[in-house]
Amino acid sequence: MKVQVCVGSNCTLLGAMNILDQLDDLQDIISENSDDYTEEVLEVEAIKCLGFCKGTEEKVAPIVVADGEAMFHATGQAVMEKIVNKLKK
Ligand code: FES
After folding, report:
1. What's the pLDDT at 19?
2. Nearest CA to 84 among 72, 67, 70?
3. How far is the CA of 64 from the centre of ligand 1 (A)?
4. Does ligand 1 lie within 6 Å of residue 61's CB atom?
């Protein structure tokens, strides 16, 4: 499962780094408890601004793309839930 975290300036200001830290912790938890999770690898990538935050009055940051699906106003909790639901046996 590929999870991409936007680290453009808008997303960084609104907490992208916290989400990356939490993903790092989750990767450790998954590898330490591999019996509870599927074989699928959790791949985390920091990416440049995808442009979602531009040209809109609406606040959409921070943005995480999990399994090809963009999550707006992403929170660590929402991202972790999505991953655990997909990878937990
Ligand atoms: S800074 Fe994240 S989408 Fe623009």
Report:
1. 98
2. 67
3. 9
4. yes
